[in-house]
Each structure stands twice: as structure tokens, then as C-alpha cells.
Amino acid sequence: MNFLLDLLQGAGVGGASGIRPFLPTLVTGGLATADVAVDFEGTAFSFLESPVFLIVIVFAAAVTVALEQRGKIAEPLGQGLLVIGVVLGALLAAGSLDDRADIWWPGLLVGGAAAVLLGVASRQLLGRVAQRLGEEERSFLLLYAAGTALLVTAASLLFPPLALVALVVAAWLLVASRKRAGEKYAGLRILNRP
User: Fold this and answer.
1) Could you say which of 33, 76, 85, 137 is the most buried, measured as most Cβ atoms within 10 Å of its Cβ?
2) pLDDT band, residue 65 (cuts 50/70/90)
3) Which long-range contacts (CB under 8 A, 24 or more apart) does 45-49 make?
4) What is the pTM of this model?
């Protein structure tokens, strides 16, 4: 049972890293330094709570925010952040398992998969919402994404079963998005018939 809870905690934190990679890493590493909900000390992932690593994460987050404010490289930056989120999510989930379990490698798989799921779902949702908003309102989408990542991180660390809620919602968003796209193209095929 404890292994399952640790795996859920890792999935939640890993998934949050898919939404915004640096904030969940910073929060989890910061809490781990205080031994709150997770502790990477004495594990193969102790670097996740080291001050040097956390400073690098703060710097990377600041550079990311500056680039996003310019908005000129949105698509490549988004893809790069998803890749970084998958890597950090896998590491955080493996560290969460290594904290209390004998094996940690399933965390790499679960954390990476959860980061992909939540990352893709959130990007599709934010992309659809951004099309309907004006320029000024679009700038708030990044704050909503950061808030969501923070909420998923905190919920997963403090009460790991809540990670299941985030995973189910992300899966539902992806299925609904694919269904909506299929209906849209079916309508277009009907309109194009001679």
C-alpha cells in the first residue's frame, strides 16, 4: 500500500512537471530540504534537494518566463519545456519512490508518462482557450498553468491519491479533444462532398 501511495505521489508531481517543469521541481525540492512530505536525502536523487540544483531551477524558470513574455518562440519553447518536464517528472517520481521503497525505476516510467499526459492535455486546452481570448487575457494563461501545476504538486505531496484526479481529468481532456477534432473534420468532409 505504501508503495502505491509513493507511486501516486510521484505520478502527481511528475504530471505537474509536464504542465510547468520548474515550479513543481522547486516546490518539491524545497519541501524535501525541510523533510516535508518527501525527503531525497540518502537516495540516488539527493541532488534534487541540493541548493545548487534549486538555484539552477530558479534561474531556468526566470529565463523561461522572460522568453515567454517575448512570445516570439512560443512553439519551440513549449516543446522544449515539455521535454524538460518529462525528464524532471521522471526524476521527481523516481526520487519519491527511492525515499521509502527499495526500487525506484518504476518512478521513472510513471513520472515520465504522467508528465506527457498532463503536459499534452494542458497545452491543448490552453491552445484552444488562447484562440478565444484577446492579447491581454492570454498573458494570464501562464499564471493559470503555473497555479494548476502548483495545486497538483501540493495535492500530490500532501495527499497522494489526489494525483489520480489530475490524471483522470487530463485523460478526459485528451479524449474529449480528439472526439471534438474528429467531429469537426467529419463536418468538413460532409461540406466538401459534391
Assistant:
1) 85
2) confident
3) 45/91, 45/94, 45/95, 45/98, 45/104, 48/91, 48/92, 48/95
4) 0.86
**Contact call for residues 53 and 40 (beta carbons, < 8 A):** no
Amino acid found at 173: L
pLDDT surpassing 80 at residue 70: no
3-state secondary structure the chain: CHHHHHHHHHHHHHHHHHHCCHHHHHHHHHHHHCCCCCCCCCCCCHHHHCHHHHHHHHHHHHHHHHHHHHCCCHHHHHHHHHHHHHHHHHHHHHHHHHHHCCCCHHHHHHHHHHHHHHHHHHHHHHHHHHHHCCHHHHHHHHHHHHHHHHHHHHHHHHCCCHHHHHHHHHHHHHHHHHHHHHHHHHHHHHHCCC
- Spatial distance between the Cα atoms of 184 and 64, rounded to a whole number of angstroms: 34
Q: Assign residue 50 a region: left if phi > 0, alpha if psi is -120 to 50, beta otherwise?
A: beta
Highest average pLDDT, of 60-69, 113-122, 170-179, comes from 113-122
* pLDDT tens, residue by residue, 15-31: 999 999 999 999 999 99
pLDDT of residue 188: 47
